[in-house]
Fold these 3 entries.
Entry 1:
Amino acid sequence: MPKLHGLKKISQWKQRLKTQMVLWSYPPTKNQLLVTVGLAIAGASLIAYGAHLSLVNVAPQQARAKARKDYIKDRLRKMLDD
């Protein structure tokens, strides 16, 4: 890495890095674009389905947690009252 002295050298170094970074060596074909779009849609749909399942199962999980909490409170009250 070259020594950087001053803002001019830093901007020159950044410009060199920008010209060296290349996303694609060649433009993608139609089939590659279709596959990319298809995979992106499939990934987004899997994320949406997972979020749906998570939201659907919130109420039963909260009910189980409340039942556990109530059970523990009752047990502690019985143990401490005796």
Note: The mean pLDDT is 85.
Entry 2:
Amino acid sequence: MTRTCASCGKAGHNRRTCTLHRQNDEFFMKSKIEYRICSICGEHGHNVLTCGKVNPKKEKIRILRLATRGSRICSACGKSGHNNRTCIVANPNRLSKIKRTDGRRHCLHCGKVGHNSRTCPTIHPERKPRISRSDGKRICSQCGKVGHNTRTCPILFPNRVKKNYRRANRICTQCGEKGHNKRTCPTINPEAAAARKLRNSKNKSQRRCKICNAAGHNSRTCSQRALQFLGN
């Protein structure tokens, strides 16, 4: 059975996807919500679930939401910008928890500074506390050692350590030296050898990106990486 459009009378589409109806309908140009057509009363701006003839209570809620669109109103204090769940009048205990100290994050569960409710030790006692250093070096929360995090921890991922060990001890078939292969050998391809040294360098200022060829970062943190994916 071929569907027929209620707006233009042609077959193959309905009123919602009709191009003629979209061009002539001012409600569609405003928003998709206002373009809705109720199948009960035939009016714009709502559907069957919020129709006044079927459910008057939901109609009042819909009208209130349209009147206060973009600024939610709290049912406890009547002010805008929050709801009953986050209202400090209805929940006075939240006032001391939502305050921040020196711009650091504040836990909404225990009220302490330095973590949030997702990493709160009172909720998740099995998780180890995050250790911070003043020199800026990262510390693994799994083993407590400096220089890596849990994503690259050798205890959690021993195969990665073996892979790096094999890569550092591989022998080039061209020159016989360790640390590279024939593809990045300096005697055959000095440019690839220089790029390999920059990639393996721990000094971030010496890194060179493979996407934009700029120094100071790599391809993972390049700002043009998203543009490259969009172009493909």
Note: Residues 34 and 166 are 63 Å apart (CA to CA).
Entry 3:
Amino acid sequence: MWVENVADLHSKQENFSEVNDTSSKAAMCHVFVAWMISVTLRRKGILSESSLSFTTITPNVPSNDIDFKEEALSDESKHTREKFIYHLQMASQYFFKAGRYELIPELSKSILPLFEHEGNYQQLLNTYDHIKKAYEKSSRRWVNVFWAPITGSRFSGMVLTRTTEPELTSLPVIVERLKKIHRNSARSLKIIQESSKLKWRNLDQNSDYIQVNAVKPRFPECKETESQFIMHHNIGTFELETPFCLSGKTHGSVDEQCIRITLFKTAQAFPYVKKRILIIEKEVIVLSPIQVSDGVILGGNRTDRVQSERYE
């Protein structure tokens, strides 16, 4: 399966940290393979319909991607119970490396009944021990998410993507990495590190551009009281704040300061099997000086209290 090859590529990355985004993607690849196998096993009656709800792990499974659907129905001779267990165990190991400990007990719900049925007490012991270690863990770091719109003839028009990086990754490191990736394909690549809104038509048409900005997850105000894990898992909406003044300055006095909040919705939720995900919807909210002050005083999710203008 091609997704298994992607998992191998992620697992071979050597930039592991305490919580590693590459580990999350490798884990998600194994989750997708396990889901493909489960389609066959459930149809054959080997797995019960209630054995595992993959949507509790990620809303990206089952996927609407035709590649996944076709592969789930192909070469079913390789879709065995042993393979199913193997991929869930691999996913569990990578989620542990990624610091997503809360997913391990959920993944184990499908494995434990199979081991109990065959009387495999050693595997039961190993699985419960892995769950115990997951419950004992609590400290972890989360990844940074960067917004990287790219444009130019090399890129065939503007494409919006998101890329995730380990938490301690700085913006200059991202810039150097992008330059290295595109140095042989882009004619004259320019990296823009400012958050102000750019007018692409006014840029040099003989150059290619990538604008990079760090963004943060955005969720309903009620969710802000939940655990850090819930606030950093299966996130599909992000926000970028850009300060500006009507006079053209970036920063000004209290009675001048405005903020432009851009909300992005991605095609899939993070983490996913891919590092870059397409943005499918953008919404721009402009806060006036009084609304900016109101947000500072009241706190919370100030965008819920103002009118917004939506751009598709």
Note: The longest strand covers residues 258-270.
